[in-house]
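Appendix C reproduces, verbatim, an entry submitted by the partner laboratory led by Prof. M.T., so that reviewers can inspect both the input and the predicted structure.
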Amino acid sequence: MILVYDCGEKPVGKMLKLRGRYLHWIQNSVFEGEITEVKLMELVSKASKIMDLEEDSLIVFKSRDQKWLEKEIVGKEKNAMENIL
């Protein structure tokens, strides 16, 4: 799964901390990793309480099988993960 968020300056730190409990931080507001549906619902619920739902956004990209998701990096990888995707 890949999770991307865009939020105002105030909740950025809280969002970063929250995402780090569930997924691997790879670049600024981008996280990736494997997560169960229950944990994803928990994550989205907690994020909704931090976010300004009128201004901020959270986007979740899901893939049921890793073979359908290919990752290509151009330039420097900000937070390399050996065993992700």
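Residues 26 and 81 are 8 Å apart (CA to CA). Additional entries are available on request from the coordinating office.
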